[in-house]
Amino acid sequence: MKIMISTPWFEPASLAGGPVRSISNMIRELSGKFRFDVFCGAKDVDGRPLEIAATDQWLDYGKDCEVFYSLNKPVVHFKKSLSTRENGCIYIVGIFSWRFTLMPLFFNSGKRVIISPRGMLHPPALAQKPFKKKVYLFLLKPFLKWKKVSFHATDAAEAEYIRRYAGADSKLFIVPNFPEIFDLMPVRKEMGKLNLVTIALIGPMKNHLLVLKALRQCKGVIDYVICGPVYVKDYWRQCEELIGELPSNIKVRYAGVVPSDQVKNILKSAHVFICPSKSENYGHAIIEALSAGKPVITSHNTPWQRLEENKAGINSETNKDALAHAIDYFAGMDDTAYSEWIKGAGDYARRQVDADSIRKEYEKMFVGEKSD
Predict the structure, then answer these.
(1) What digits encode the pLDDT tens for the residues 246-270?
(2) Greatest CA separation found in the chain?
(3) Most Cβ neighbours (<10 Å): which of 53, 259, 285, 368?
(4) pTM for this model (two decimals)
(5) Which of 316, 314, 322 is nearest to 295 (CA)?
(6) For 2-178+354-367, which CATH class?
(7) In this structure, CATH architecture of domain 193-352
(8) Using one digit for the tens of pLDDT, what is the confidence trace for 200-245?
(9) Domains in the chain: boundaries
(10) Residue 341 to residue 327: CA distance in whole angstroms
(11) Inter-axis angle of helices 18-30 and 355-367, to 10 degrees?
């Protein structure tokens, strides 16, 4: 069976964050069982052209997958692809795109459609540009009443947000993402010192500025590495100003954009991963860090809960005092105490991920066996 994926951004786009990783991992895990056509844009979120072999034609992308990077005449190319590519199902990634959400719904002529909002219906996400989004969602809603439209939520919380919008009777599949699971990467820990890392898009949703404000209060010697593309430039300028005002016990370094195959190298020397997100639909970087044995300081707004009782990290309140306390808590550990948290983080990640079970749930979703 072949699936057509409609998404605004796909590899090598780097600014769209988790959804790109999610779709790439899904294709990797399900190749052999399904084939995929990815119809996507040819530019990154900031409008920069992607470094790709060609646009407006189908290109091979590994095993069982082809990609169409649309630049010109997207309507013409999409309609042609629908009629000639013989896909059994259309899988729409995201929700706020006329080209990649509305267009597939409008031109579809009888195929099953699965919409995966990827956290875009979470309240903190809807709070960004709310009027524009309310108008768009009002216009979109009639298309969702078609009997062959269903939704994909990655957890129960997202399922609830989808039902608030689409209705309690909406057809819905709850299937988690495929993360990448790393081997444990133990690193020695000296009492009073901490290597801290964040790998995330740099913008208000990830709360980098709050972390920097918390670091001003920390007693330990902290080496903090920030990785990821700058998504909101004004926000990053505020971060840079604060970095320049930090006390001498705090060192902060911006390491830029980290390709997915280099994430392991960044995590190797880290003691703790920090990302107290305002809203997180999944958080690939969080589960990857946990799998590597890196305890995580995050908020209560992610799927990764009950971290402290599992010695896997801390779900902190999103204020500078609470974050400073969490950072100093790890900074104060010696190597013996910290070693228990390496194991706790790794064990927690592996309990959360059952790749075989996830694979079976995706298979059910795509063949349409049953929805919640």
Answers:
(1) 999 999 999 998 877 788 899 999 9
(2) 64
(3) 285
(4) 0.79
(5) 314
(6) alpha beta
(7) 3-Layer(aba) Sandwich (3.40)
(8) 989 999 999 999 999 999 999 999 999 998 888 999 999 999 999 9
(9) 2-178+354-367, 193-352
(10) 14
(11) 90
